[in-house]
Amino acid sequence: MVxxxxxxxxxxxxLIQRVTDVPEDAAAALxxxxxAQLMNQPSERIALQSAxxxxxxxxxxPATISTGNPTVLLAFMAAGDFMANHPIEFLVSNSxxxxxxxxINDNTTLSDIPDHDVAIVAISESEANNRLLRHLTxxxxxxxxxxxxxxxxxxxxxxxGAWELLYDIPRIKYPKNERxxxxxxxxxxxxxxxxxxxxIIRPIDSHAGRGLEKIDDMSDLExxxxxxxxxxxxxxxxxxxxxxxxxxxKYRVVVIQGKAFACHMAISKHWMVHYLNxxxxxxxxxxxxxxxxxxTFDIAFGFRHAPIFQEMxxxxxxxxxxxxxxxxxxxxxxxxxxxxSMIVHAMDSPTVFPYKQVATNKIFSTFQTMVNQARIAG
Length: 378
Prior knowledge:
Elements: H1 9-21, H2 26-38, H3 42-55, E1 58-61, E2 71-77, E3 97-103, E4 118-121, H4 130-139, E5 147-148, H5 151-154, H6 159-166, E6 172-173, E7 178-181, H7 182-187, H8 189-192, E8 199-203, E9 213-215, H9 218-227, E10 232-237, E11 248-256, E12 259-268, H10 284-295, H11 301-304, H12 306-316, E13 320-327, E14 333-338, H13 354-377
Parallel strand pairs: 2-3, 2-4, 4-5, 6-14
Antiparallel strand pairs: 1-3, 7-10, 8-9, 8-10, 11-12, 11-13, 13-14
């Protein structure tokens, strides 16, 4: 509703009434915490979510298509904002998959895990979540049910950890991500400039461009540190990936068991490309190019880089892996990041973006097939 400019007030009031009438209605409190997040009220989000999780940790989204016994997919979740977990709900919408969501903590044991057919770790890699991922790795040791995206594999996807895993894949260009402190940035600024280029910087655990800037000289760095009070950052050399027309192109691709699928393509004059601010809705020529990218993906972009995507699957051990990338002028895959928290959705207008429904439905269908096959194999 928010994505399409809808009015949340009626939903908000209904949920408030539910919590007023039945204070132990944890599902209503959890939904209210989502609305608080959408209304940019993070403190309210935390309070409402905490209240809900004190009542119960297990929530269910029923299957919407009834074909025999629905497959029960259990998602292990962490408390937090939208980036704390992969938005798994989109992947199983309009399917025969019942989604059970279990919010875990340091005290979760095997006895707390409800019955299910297949499990998936939806918890994203982050400083806040790494302890939970380690705990879950130990808890699930020897677990006999099928598990998609094991916690120890997700834990390796920090920006520097992912670089260590993937940087030397043939025909991939992956700028080295280095973790540094404020003090190191100032003391080692000359060292950083040995990249022989500008560099980009962002706080640890930042996403969607928060705190991401390009640093060209010492004055840029001093200004950046004055405006960003974080203590630890990632730095990486800036790669100028402009196409011959001077535009920057960024692709979101989803790799499912080694096969890649097109999610979206964004085109911008600015090096920091985000789909929502790239003007894709307002400039038809960009949509025409995105449509061509998606419709020819299997014989063009996806085919050219298929060995890389297969190698990424084998090295990460993740059955489901979204990535953000581009392509260099010499045809290499330029990798920006990979991480399970990236959103894949079908919320765009089917009138403006009719081709995206086809592409995202292919991703959803492939994911659901993987889940159902895991149930059979398990």
